[in-house]
Write a structure and sequence with these properties.
The protein is of the alpha+beta class. It folds into three domains: 92 residues, 2-Layer Sandwich (Ribosomal Protein S5, domain 2), CATH 3.30.230; 30 residues, no CATH class; 137 residues, Butyryl-CoA Dehydrogenase, subunit A, domain 3 (Up-down Bundle), CATH 1.20.140. It contains nine helices and four strands. The chain has a four-stranded mixed sheet with strand order 1-2-4-3, covered by helices on one side. A hairpin with a 3-residue loop joins β1 and β2. The protein starts with 6 loop residues before the first strand and ends with a helix.
Length: 288
């Protein structure tokens, strides 16, 4: 299946102690370029997350955001740190021995003391398992969005290929008459310019020039490149770079067709071909 390099996905999980939220988004790029925006407490997950994304995406600039917050599923239990309370009690006793007139610590003072209300520790293994489960779902959604976008791009390319085939088919029967008309016009001009020139020499010169302006080979190569484009679209996979190369070759043949044309109809067909190729080239830049 053809995949776009443009994709988006977001997943959230509400757990007992914390909630997780992951967001993935990507745009086109020459290679795979992954950027992470995650907190320090989750930094140890960057390597497995990178490996997971790399296994499912081949190209694109990918941004991964991962956030962890205290869970709102149940009220947080605030339990004073017993060890810290003991230290405060001992410190207060020392101070009061030295300074009997000092005011005792109030409850509010104690609760505001740094570290007195310690948060529940999160098991790193539980955290990693939850994050990777979340990441698996997010990456699956992310890849699906790229596939849906890729199918739309492939459909557009197939439609343009069909239109280009029609134009090539229209051009082919025009060539014999266009060349015959051009030979006649060129012969007449040569006769007028050089009245004494040998008739056989005129035919030879006209034949040589007519060969130079024959575009049958360009039309044949256009058809071959269109066949290859359709084959790549059917095959799917990482097709962006191959399709980009084919767009260059199609454009080369269309340019040659336009420059060698001696017919207004063939020239118009060549210009429309170039327009369709440019439309395809712009879309191919978004294919993985």
């Amino acid at each position: 299946m053809i995949k776009s390099m443009t994709g988006y996905a977001a997943q959230s999980r509400e757990l007992a102690q914390f909630s997780l939220h992951m967001e993935l988004k990507s745009v086109n790029a020459r290679f795979l370029d992954i950027h992470f925006r995650i907190g320090d407490e989750l930094r140890f997950l960057e390597l497995p997350l990178r490996e997971l994304i790399t296994s499912r995406a081949g190209r694109g600039k990918v941004e991964c955001r991962l956030q962890m917050q205290a869970s709102t599923a149940r009220p947080r239990e605030l339990v004073p740190n017993a060890t810290m309370l003991g230290h405060l009690k001992d410190l207060e006793a020392v101070v009061r021995r030295e300074m009997p007139a000092a005011a005792p610590l109030g409850v509010a003072d104690i609760l505001r003391w740094p570290g007195i209300l310690g948060e529940e520790a999160v098991d790193p293994e539980v955290l990693q398992a939850a994050c990777m489960e979340l990441a698996g779902a997010a990456v699956a959604e992310f890849v699906a969005s790229r596939e849906r976008e890729g199918e739309k791009l492939a459909a557009m390319l197939r439609e343009r290929v069909t239109r280009m085939r029609d134009l090539v088919a229209q051009a082919e029967p025009l060539l014999p008459q266009a060349l015959a008309d051009y030979r006649e016009r060129l012969s007449q001009k040569l006769r007028e310019a050089v009245a004494s020139l040998d008739e056989e020499r005129i035919r030879q010169e006209v034949g040589v020039f007519a060969t130079r302006i024959d575009v049958a080979e360009e039309l044949s190569r256009l058809s071959a490149h269109l066949d290859e484009t359709e084959r790549i679209l059917r095959q799917g996979g990482a097709a962006g770079k191959r399709l980009d190369f084919l767009m260059q070759e199609l454009n080369r043949e269309a340019n040659t067709l336009s420059s060698k044309s001696v017919s207004g109809q063939v020239t118009a067909i060549a210009l429309e071909l170039k327009l369709l190729i440019e439309q395809m080239r712009e879309q191919v830049q978004n294919i993985e």
